[in-house]
Amino acid sequence: MRLTSSIQPYDPKWPQQYANEEARLRPIFGPALVEIHHVGSTAIPELAAKGEIDILAVIDPTGTVEDWSRSFEMLGYRRGGDLSLGHLSSNAMLMVFAHASSTFAAKVMRQSLEC
């Protein structure tokens, strides 16, 4: 069984899909948000990719993903996710890293986009 989506030609809608998600996520993180980025293959213009929007949020460690879980759920995000074929098309993956001087703790959430 394949574990990821198939590669598809570059879609010029990917940057806007990221921008839409960033706009929805910023208010949840509030002042704890240090940086937010569109990462992964869909962030590279003209590159064929899996079509899954990867988002990296770097946060101040005073907040935790658990603090925001309800808000993420209201936006359609869920912890973990099924990586099998048919479960990843038009998805966003949010990776949250706590920014600290010596450690990074990662939490990953997935969300189906309505794009």
Structure characterization notes:
This protein is an alpha+beta fold and 115 residues long. The protein has a single domain, classed as Beta Polymerase, domain 2 (2-Layer Sandwich), CATH 3.30.460. The chain has two helices and five strands, in the order αββαβββ. A five-stranded mixed β-sheet has the order 1-2-4-5-3, with helices on one face. The protein starts with 13 loop residues before the first helix and ends with a strand.
Rg calculated over all Cα atoms: 14 Å
Q: Which CATH top level class fits?
A: Alpha Beta
Instruction: Tell me what the CATH architecture is.
Output: 2-Layer Sandwich
How many strand units? 5
CATH topology: Beta Polymerase, domain 2
Q: Look at the structure and give the mean pLDDT.
A: 75
Outline of the structure:
The protein has 115 residues and is an alpha+beta fold. 23% of the residues lie in helices and 28% in strands. The protein is built from two helices and five strands, in the order αββαβββ.
